[in-house]
Amino acid sequence: MATRSTDAYLPHEGQEAVGVCTGCKAISWGKRWFADGDEAVTLPAGSTPHKVVCPACQRMQDNNPAGIVTFSGDYLLQHEELILNAVKNIEAKSRAKNPLSRIMEIGQEGNVLTIRTTDEKLAERLGREIYKSHSGKLGFQWSEDENFVRVSWSR
Fold first, then answer.
1. 21 and 54 Cβ atoms separated by less than 8 Å
2. Contact of 117 with 69, CB cutoff 8 Å
């Protein structure tokens, strides 16, 4: 059977037992992660969840992001609140679909805003959505060896 992902943080084998993340309370069952309280999850009768650490919480503990997004330029300073609100909305939508897709940290130095994510797809989405609504210049650098992307947007 072919491996679908090379991400070291995702288990290569499906876990048949139900697990609950000790950090974020996400639920693992049958190769999928569900947000705590997700009504779509119907656990097997009599199943007792065991404690696990989800890949996103593990990345945060290891301080090892899957994506780094950099927004820069004078335009950013003029529209900082608007862009930050958009970033938070994009993360919320992404996290509703995938509880492992999170922002680890948002930092700012001068006219540079840096966002570290637990999921490379979230990093890509942040860059694309800000580009779609604010134009500017957008660039991507993917790592060949690991699941990692560096996204840069400027205007």
1. yes
2. yes
Query: What type of residue sits at position 106?
Result: I
Q: Which residue, among 16, 45, 51, has the nearest Cα to 31 in the 3D structure?
A: 16
Burial grade of 114 (CB within 10 A; 0-12, 13-18, 19 or more): middle
In angstroms, the CA 4 to CA 20 distance is: 23
Task: Look up the pTM and report it.
Answer: 0.85
CA gap 149, 115 in Å, rounded: 12
Low-confidence ranges of the chain (pLDDT < 70): 1-8, 10-16, 38-46
- pLDDT of amino acid 2: 41
pLDDT score at 98: 92
pLDDT on residue 33: 87
What is the DSSP code (8-state) at residue 153? E
Contacts of 51 (CB under 8 A, 6+ apart): 19, 20, 22
**Cα 132 from Cα 36, distance rounded (Å):** 32
**Percent composition of the chain: helix, strand, coil (DSSP 3-state, to 5):** 30, 30, 45
